[in-house]
Amino acid sequence: MNTTQIITLLFSSSLLAAILTLFGNRWLNREKYKTDFYKKVIEKRLIAYELLEILINRIQGLSQLEDGLAPMFMCLGKDYFYKTYFEIIEVINYSIWLSPETSNKVTELNVYLINEIENKLSESDNVDAELAHLGLQHRDRIKQFRQELQALVIKDFKNLHKVKSFIGNKEKDREENDHILYKNKN
Question: I need a labelling partner for 25 at 20 to 30 A (CA). Which of 9, 134, 155, 176 fits?
Answer without folding.
Answer: 9
